[in-house]
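SEVERITY: medium
COMPONENT: batch folding queue
REPORTER: lab tech (J.R.)

DESCRIPTION
The queue accepted two submissions in a row. Attaching both inputs and their returned structure tokens so the on-call engineer can compare them side by side.

ATTACHMENT 1
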Amino acid sequence: MSAVKIVAIVLIAAGILGLVYGKFVYTKETHSTKLGALELLVKDRETVNVPAWVGVGAIVVGGVLLLIPRKKS
């Protein structure tokens, strides 16, 4: 399987996941303080919304990459 087909399949899968879930959440550490043996951490939870057009675009681009014939060298 060529690298172009792998990229196309990954794009299609990412597009479908983007449409199904619509967002993803991650946690990042923003502040850290150490007072002797006591360590204080502040973690913020961030949410990133994935627009529907990005998911559809990834599916379309992946489909085009799968359907375009490649020259054999």
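ATTACHMENT 2
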Amino acid sequence: MKVQEMKSNFFVSWFLLISLGLIWGMAFMGVELALKNFQPLTIAAIRISLAALILNLIGYFTGNKLPKLSDTNGKKILMHCLGMALLSNALPFSLLSWAQVKVSSGFAGIAMAVVPLVVLPMTHFCVPNQKMTQQKVFGFIIGFIGVIILIGPNSMQLNNENSIIVAQFACILASICYASGSIVTKLTPPINLISFTSCSLLFASILIIPLALMIDGIPKFNYGFPLLGVIYLGLFPTALATIIKVTLIRRKGPPFLSLVNYQVPIWAIIFGVFLLKEKLPSQFIVALIIILIGLGLSELKKGLGKDF
């Protein structure tokens, strides 16, 4: 029975990881649609606020209250909630929305593959019992080679237009924020999942709404695909994805979660090509195979050994 339970946990973890990659891969298409009517900070503010509303309602009706200073480790938990609000929500959402004014949804998705490279050394030094191994390092290197092939010289779009280069670096900075946020989440003292995620999104809303109103002004809501795009962003890549993300970090740790960022470029390009009519990189199939090999080498053998 115990072996069957371990097998089930192993497959559940991978199912959640693949689902998260799909949801986040579609997020860049959602941003692309939303940008047709909304300003970048407004998009970040709406998606975060909508997700915060949903998760706080769930927390209220299920009796999972927000953490308090008077709780055990209350101050530390609230600080971690604030860290997640900044590093996993407010900053990366704003950076990516702003960057996608200049770069394609495919490029923004490709940039997410930087996350595992940042997570690997951070986890080694910051998270107990999450040390680098030769297998992990080799798998990450193979996967990153696939990402380099996927990007290719044409995807970088390097030219004399400085704004494009700045937008590309904004995507990379967003990836670093995500990596740092996963470490903060892993180090959070024990707390109910809904309480933690709803508090983090509430903090992010408080931070981003005034800034969005000050810079972008009051948004004008027009019905159509832009509104559907921003609603999708709030419901799935923010609310649902936050729950899945925290669940995976607690079950498997930041390095396992970071593997999702090798999938995100694939999904982002698929949706960008077939739904947004963006150009398909010629190196896509080769890169896809190499990335999947890297995924398998870095985690599958370890997962089979520990979970089975």
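NOTES FROM REPORTER
The radius of gyration is 19 Å.
No errors were logged for either attachment.
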